[in-house]
């Protein structure tokens, strides 16, 4: 048996002598104060007189990191000794947020760190603010990957994340003149204490070139030649589990030039040109594409996908071959999950590695591949389904295009065998779409190359079977399954809501963090007046904390006793922030006309980013801000209604917003939101939901009960029927006086007097262009349900009772449950016993 001093799994080189584990320095022997002071001096080179707040952050992070590393090293050893089956989670996005508080919480050292900082005259709350979010994702899909990492580590599942170390993550949003401005997110500017560069783990990734066929005695060999090379270098980020020794690894790839300089250019005396070429290859990992729920089709995006997939597949095969000689073992030791189609090219890359590089027979290799891969679908929306032109694909990755053609040929032969003569079926399921100018359909590649395909909520998975993948469901009965998404209760309850955590702990003891089903013991306390009062006090304090931050950010002063009505998520037409705005304007009109005597005071908070190229989404942001400016300044309105756009919605903002919410807006058109996870975070933090029967809202309703959620609007079948019957938004416009008034105000420039036509296009999408997301059809139902919400909020006791029941019934939505289902039904992996 060998041990390693550093948390890598590189086979030992003879030059590095083994050291017994017992001789390692133990980080947690030193008290926090001493450790903080040591790091301030020896890691930052500062004294307490010269130290800045950032230096104290570094000292704190380094102190916590020592504890993480100790367990990380042991986890690597345990995995090596036990040789368990491993899961590789391939994702182009990991929306992690800040790491320090989460690491301290998961390791159980938060109290002593807090204590140590206090003794040194600092506060944990202050230094935490110095950490930039790791915003390596757009929204729900990327955050899901981060929650999964937390759950895998917590459950001792040997799981590794693979992704890209973007130099610039999700853009930082500012609001100027009511409009979104995108600023670069230079998150690595001051370094990143949570990453470890691994120059010993680098792989060549090839692009372009051409394929040479060589006919040999044993068959045809293909050689991919004249390629351009980029080097992928690993950066490891430790992922500590909660209440366990396990620390897993997130391995992010950074693009480096294959050679420092092109000597040809250098010898010509063209030094600048040589350096430029180097920058070209490093562009690959420069920046995250800021699109949510839409495919970009750009060459650099395909390069990013292949870059990280190739490095990851090479890396996991190297690890497999270190310990095994028999390829038959591959499916017993390796499970790969594709987070959406972004890494789907891994199916072709694995074939390339097995057949061209390791010289396995095609059919044998394909048998292994299909046992290794599984694919998660995240959307039914056509604009989000990735396709690549055959021309671009073949230029960038000529060998992989050939591999995909062969996979497709064999697949179509199989389909034709089972459904003879159905040429329409063949053209519908083909990996190559011949009807839209020859494109590679990545979703079809992912389905064909995987043993299991899952949707992310019950409704979504049913829709997959009956619509998008109906043909595949006939071809491969049983391949399509459901795994409802979840969220980690560590970050989304314990870390973000210490008040509620303490209240729950005092009632139930600890343990719910690792076993969320324990929350069900809160149910009887919903009937306990003292508990309800305490619960309400926690919510009020969280709202106060949020109001303070909002005043600092926007200058708008809020009354924390108002109903905090919150919609935070990416700005997209299908999520219908605009429907929320229609309701806000309706309330405004009712207040101004003196119609309502004692309306419930409301604060309507929006937050979210629009893709920079998504003009309509940016118009919606601007409209929210224009409405807010008018409403918030109207003395006739006062505290009855306030409207806030919270700038730069990101994970650390979410941690403040969810605990401070009373009402959770989950109002997407039924059938469009695959799952949603913001809905789960809200309910877990004691907000009541107003929502459509969409995504996981359906299952939230099942769990909390019909009386404890506000459901409105058309169901998925009703949406389809309404469209089929020839939906005419004008009927709703003419049929509802309040709606007509609201739309007229937007269209006539009531909120944009300096530019009356500003929102003409918004009105046109609703009235002239068919209102694709059926806002007008759902308006009356939404407003009536909001009236019921307002009325219930006046009964604080009953509201709180229902909020407590929501928290008590959230067990299902722990990502621990989600990961347990993936582990047993899809990956067939077990926790490692230590
Ligand atoms: C949870 C989360 C999301 C996903 O929210 P939805 O309401 O499910 O779209 C997006 N961004 C951040 C920062 C989150 O924490």
Automatic annotation (TrEMBL):
Region (Disordered): 1-30
Any one of the GO CC terms: cytoplasm
Biased composition (Low complexity): 1-20
Taxonomic lineage from the root: Bacteria, Pseudomonadati, Pseudomonadota, Betaproteobacteria, Nitrosomonadales
EC number: 2.4.1.1
Any single biological process term in GO: glycogen catabolic process
Protein name (record): Alpha-1,4 glucan phosphorylase
PANTHER family: GLYCOGEN PHOSPHORYLASE (PTHR11468), GLYCOGEN PHOSPHORYLASE, LIVER FORM (PTHR11468:SF3)
Organism per entry: Pseudomethylobacillus aquaticus
Modified residues (N6-(pyridoxal phosphate)lysine): 681
Entry similarity comment: Belongs to the glycogen phosphorylase family.
UniProt cofactor(s): pyridoxal 5'-phosphate
UniProt GO molecular function: glycogen phosphorylase activity; pyridoxal phosphate binding
Pfam families: Phosphorylase
């Amino acid at each position: 048996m060998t041990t390693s001093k550093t948390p890598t799994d590189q086979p030992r080189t003879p030059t590095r002598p083994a050291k017994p584990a017992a001789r390692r320095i133990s980080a947690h022997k030193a008290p926090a104060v001493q450790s903080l002071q040591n790091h301030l001096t020896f890691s930052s080179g500062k004294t307490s007189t010269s130290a800045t707040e950032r230096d104290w952050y570094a000292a704190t992070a380094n102190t916590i990191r020592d504890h993480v590393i100790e367990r990380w090293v042991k986890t690597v050893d345990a995995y090596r000794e036990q040789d368990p089956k491993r899961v590789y989670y391939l994702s182009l996005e990991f929306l992690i947020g800040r790491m320090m508080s989460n690491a301290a919480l998961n390791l159980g050292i938060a109290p002593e760190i807090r204590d140590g900082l206090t003794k040194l005259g600092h506060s944990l709350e202050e230094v935490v603010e110095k950490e930039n979010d790791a915003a390596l994702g757009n929204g729900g899909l990327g955050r899901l990957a981060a929650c999964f990492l937390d759950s895998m580590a917590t459950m001792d599942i040997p799981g590794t994340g693979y992704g890209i170390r973007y130099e610039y993550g999700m853009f930082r949003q500012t609001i100027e003149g009511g409009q979104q401005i995108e600023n670069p997110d230079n998150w690595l500017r001051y370094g990143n204490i949570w990453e470890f560069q691994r120059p010993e783990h680098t792989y060549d990734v090839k692009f372009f070139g051409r394929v040479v066929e060589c006919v040999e005695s044993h068959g045809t060999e293909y050689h991919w030649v004249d390629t351009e090379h980029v080097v992928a270098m690993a950066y490891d980020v430790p992922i500590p589990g909660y209440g366990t020794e396990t620390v897993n690894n997130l391995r992010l790839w950074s693009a480096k030039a294959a050679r420092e300089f092109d000597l040809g250019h250098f010898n010509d005396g063209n030094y600048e040109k040589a350096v430029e070429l180097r920058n070209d290859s490093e562009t690959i990992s420069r920046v995250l594409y800021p699109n949510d729920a839409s495919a970009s089709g750009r060459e650099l995006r395909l390069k990013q996908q292949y870059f990280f997939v190739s490095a990851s597949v090479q890396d996991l095969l190297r690890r497999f071959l270190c310990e095994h000689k028999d390829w038959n073992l591959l499916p017993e030791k390796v499970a790969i999950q594709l987070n959406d189609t972004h890494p789907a090219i891994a199916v072709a890359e694995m074939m390339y590695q097995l057949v061209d590089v390791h010289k396995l027979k095609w059919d044998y290799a394909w048998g292994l591949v299909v046992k290794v891969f599984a694919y998660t679908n995240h959307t039914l929306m056509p604009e989000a389904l990735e396709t690549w032109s055959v021309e671009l694909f073949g230029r960038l990755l000529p060998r992989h295009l050939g591999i995909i053609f062969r996979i497709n040929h064999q697949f179509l032969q199989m389909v034709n065998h089972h459904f003879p003569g159905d040429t329409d079926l063949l053209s519908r399921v083909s990996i190559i779409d011949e009807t839209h100018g020859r494109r590679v359909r990545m979703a079809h590649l992912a389905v064909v190359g995987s043993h299991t395909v899952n949707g992310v909520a019950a409704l979504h998975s049913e829709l997959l079977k009956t619509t998008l993948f109906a043909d595949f469901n006939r071809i491969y009965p049983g391949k399509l399954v459901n795994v409802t998404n979840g969220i980690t209760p560590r970050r989304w309850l314990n870390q973000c809501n210490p008040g509620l955590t303490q209240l729950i702990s005092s009632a139930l003891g600890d343990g719910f963090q690792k076993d969320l089903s324990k929350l069900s013991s809160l149910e009887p306390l919903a009937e306990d007046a003292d508990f309800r009062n305490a619960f309400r006090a926690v919510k009020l304090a969280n709202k106060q904390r949020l109001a303070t931050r909002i005043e600092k950010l926007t200058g708008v002063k809020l009354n924390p006793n108002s109903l905090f009505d919150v919609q935070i998520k990416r700005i997209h037409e299908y999520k219908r922030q605009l429907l929320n705005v229609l309701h806000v304007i309706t309330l405004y009109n009712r207040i101004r006309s003196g119609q309502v005597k004692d309306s419930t005071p409301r604060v309507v908070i929006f937050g979210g980013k629009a893709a920079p190229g998504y003009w309509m989404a940016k118009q919606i942001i601007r409209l929210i801000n224009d409405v807010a400016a008018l409403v918030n300044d109207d003395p006739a309105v006062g505290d009855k209604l306030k409207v806030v756009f919270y700038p730069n919605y990101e994970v650390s903002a979410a941690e403040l917003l969810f605990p401070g919410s009373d009402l959770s807006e989950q109002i997407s058109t039924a059938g469009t939101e695959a799952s949603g996870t913001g809905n789960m975070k809200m309910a877990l933090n004691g907000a009541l939901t107003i929502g459509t029967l969409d995504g996981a809202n359906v299952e939230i309703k099942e769990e909390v009960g019909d009386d404890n959620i506000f459901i409105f609007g058309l169901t998925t079948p009703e949406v389809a029927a309404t469209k089929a019957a020839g939906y005419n938004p004008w009927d709703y416009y003419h049929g509802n006086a309040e709606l007509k008034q609201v739309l007229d105000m937007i269209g006539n420039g009531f909120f944009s007097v300096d530019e009356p036509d500003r929102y003409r296009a918004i009105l046109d999408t609703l009235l002239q262009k068919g209102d694709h997301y059926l806002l007008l059809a759902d308006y009356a139902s939404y407003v009536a349900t909001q009236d019921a919400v307002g009325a219930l909020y006046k009964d604080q006791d009953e509201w709180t009772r229902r909020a407590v029941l929501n928290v008590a019934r959230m067990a299902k939505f722990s990502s621990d449950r989600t990961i347990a289902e993936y582990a047993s039904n899809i990956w067939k992996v077990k926790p490692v016993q230590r």
